[in-house]
Every structure is written in structure tokens, then in C-alpha cells.
Amino acid sequence: MKIVMATNNQNKLREAREIFSPLGIEILSQKEAGISVNPEENGTTFSENALIKARAVYELIHLPVIADDSGLCVEALNGAPGVYSARYAPEGLLCETLLKNMQDVPAEQRNAKFVTVVAFINQKGEEITLEGSCAGVIGFEKRGSHGFGYDPVFMYGEKSFAELEPEEKNAVSHRGTAFRKLYDYLKSYCTQEEI
């Protein structure tokens, strides 16, 4: 069983493959599926953006598609960066920009959550979306060498997401939670020829 993931992001692909491999599902990147599409993510919610990406890929290949949209929502910044998380700062400067913008925010006001919405389109073009979130706080410095994006400054308990081993992070993360919901949904299809 093959599902195309609307991304070429190796970190997202790795996480998805780890979660879905027990079902015998092969997750293909866009490149592996022989397509290249980069639709404008102009939605105002994570759900809208996930569906924009999933539909763009589905229209090209008419195979099952997974797409996700994720972001970091910080209470002290009125929910920012939110759906603009990837575009919040120049590439490679996400954490530095966030820490600078939060430099005067005290520890007790640094609550944040990661949110992921996963969109799935099956072979017939039927759509569902599923959400996962993970609450934490924004630290005062970058910590850890695992993960990507905002992981080094997102504190989950005593550790940053970037200090957690991949299996630890997948067990509690926003993307892991959303993917596990999709895993449960797809489990019922695994005895069928097509999804």
C-alpha cells in the first residue's frame, strides 16, 4: 500500500514512515512519486493549508495523499507565529527570531503549543482532517541537537524537543498525535486492496 506525502521534507517523511511502517504502508515523497508541486499556502488555518497541499498533489496523481500543516502558537505573541511559523523568519533563524521577540517575557508567561493538522485524501478523493497538539513553554536558549524548526526552544518538561530521542518525541508531539489518529483511521483499510 502506497501513500504520497505532500512534502519533500526529510524530517517529516522520517516521522511519518516510523509511525505508519507497522501497517505496511509505504510513504512516498513527492519526488519519489515523480511529481513536483508547491502550492501557495494562503489559508488562514492549519486545516485549510493542509488541504491545499493535499489537493494539489491528489489532482496530479489520483493516489492516496497525506499532507500536514504545523505551527507554533505562543500565548505571549497572541498565537503567533501560528500558520506563518515557517515564514516567521529567514531560513535558519526561526529560533533566534522567536527568542529575540520573547526576550522580555517572564518564565510564567511563555506558554506555547505546537499544532499539526493532517489532511488525508483517499483513492476516491474523499477528505478528512485530524488535529494533534502538544503544550509546552518557550525556553530562554536553544538546547539539543535532534529535531528541526522550533524544537530547540520548545520545552516539554525539563527537556527541549531537540533533546528528546526521535521515539520519545513521536510519542508526545503534535505531529505524532495527529499521525497516530490517522494511523487508527487507516488501520481499518489495511485489509483492503485500495484506500
Distance between the termini: 8 Å
Total E-strand runs: 7
Question: Which percent range fits the helix content?
Answer: 25-40%
Number of helices: 5
Mean pLDDT: 92
Percent of residues in beta strands = 15-25%
Which ranges are low-confidence, i.e. pLDDT below 50, for 5 or more consecutive residues?
A: none
CATH architecture: Alpha-Beta Complex
> What spatial order of strands do you see in the largest sheet?
2-1-3-4-5-6-7
Order of helices and strands: EHEHEHEEEEHH
Largest sheet: 7 strands, mixed
Question: What's the CATH C level?
Answer: Alpha Beta
- Principal-axes geometry comes out as globular
How many structural domains does the protein architecture include?
1
The gyration radius over C-alpha positions equals 17 Å
Topology (elements, then pairings):
Layout: E1 2-5, H1 10-20, E2 26-28, H2 46-61, E3 65-74, H3 94-101, E4 111-121, E5 127-138, E6 154-156, E7 159-160, H4 166-172, H5 174-187
Parallel strand pairs: 1-2, 1-3
Antiparallel strand pairs: 3-4, 4-5, 5-6, 6-7
